[in-house]
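User: quick one - fold this with nicotinamide-adenine-dinucleotide bound?
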Amino acid sequence: MSNKGIIGVAGSGAMGSGIALVAASAGHHVLIFDANPLALDKAVSSINDILTKSVAKGKLTDDAGKLILDRIKTIDSVAGFSTCRLIIEAIIENIDIKKSLFKSIEAVVEPSCILATNTSSLSVVSVASACQNRGRVLGIHFFNPANLMPLVEIIPAFTTDENTVSQARAMIDSWGKITVLAKDTPGFIVNRIARPFYGEAIRIYEEGIADFATIDWAMKEFGGFKMGPFELMDFIGNDINYKVTETVWEQFFYDPRYRPSLTQKRLYEAGLFGRKSGRGYYNYGPDSSVPEPVKNEYLGKAIFTRVLVMLINEAVDALYLKIATASDIETSMMKGVNYPKGLLKWADEMGVDKVLSVLNSLQTDYQEDRYRPSLLLKKWQLKNLSSSTINHSRCLQSCDLFCRVPQFFQQAV
Ligand SMILES: NC(=O)c1ccc[n+]([C@@H]2O[C@H](COP(=O)([O-])OP(=O)(O)OC[C@H]3O[C@@H](n4cnc5c(N)ncnc54)[C@H](O)[C@@H]3O)[C@@H](O)[C@H]2O)c1
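Assistant: Sure. Structure tokens for the protein plus nicotinamide-adenine-dinucleotide:
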């Protein structure tokens, strides 16, 4: 057996099977557990399929593929996790079920074993609260499909030991992933900052400004995004995307900036999940045709600008609230959701004056808190960082003490 340490994976669905494959490919022996034995069989067969395809494409030798598969074993109870060095939980997104699982896992593992949750939207500290030793619990958030997506968010909770964070991060780095550090707040980095890509696009549709195809065309044509918001929601699944939006909104104490849309809720209720159900915003049936966008440049640029400033506002606010460093925010959006460029860099290119003027006019028109600009954008404007285009490095550095101290206090001292 290798001396790399045994990795446990709890939950063998879409994420668990991908994570098991990543760990085994990095040379670890992996134990996977699922409450549903059929899910375990399915996971092993889907891992086998992926490896077989890699061998057929010449990316892997036959022997290497067999070795990876041999390293993965299924277990029928959490007692089998007793020798693991790190266990990553990827079961159903339900806080009570996750807490109960963590409690039962902690009862069988060594004191040095690190316990991680792959939750997309629940609080890591709340999961950790089920354990006696909360210092060993953190969030390790992979993206789907875990074997292909390079980004992993590392999320220490209030109670996580520093040693746990450094060990876990070093382990995931050694698997060839790109790790970023995120605060334990709703949506962490990517699922927080990306919300307007979906929400603002749906809002534009609901207002009758443009149809799905036109909005998708605008974001690809003028923003260089690989997929438009509606194509992407259909790809992710409207069930998953709607639930993440709803949970993030609830956990932000119903902040209107994150409010879900009725359009997506109705699709979710109707079971129109997207590609996997044959219909979502688009129809994927055999006789379906691809709708034509209205390729009007003025309209397209207006749509793109409105969505982009909302994304920039989220990224800048995440920086202001120290959810992550500037460079981790940039990396996250490019490696976690394939954005063509970092949003802070985009803010530089557009200029803070322009970003703020679009946000301010949206807020004036709609009189909604949804469009309130981040305080950090206003601070940047105050420092005249926007009169010409902001130098990117200055933009990153300018999240300094001055920017952090509200104007009232600056005047008072
Ligand atoms: N799907 C995504 O795009 C994605 C991305 C990142 C993170 N996540 C998170 O990863 C986790 C898993 O998501 P998924 O998409 O793989 O779900 P999934 O539905 O594909 O798989 C979940 C698995 O957990 C099993 N399970 C349920 N309760 C269990 C229990 N008590 N003990 C053991 N196994 C149990 C189920 O049988 C199922 O096989 C969730 O927390 C989700 O938020 C999902």
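One thing worth noting: The chain has a mean pLDDT of 92.
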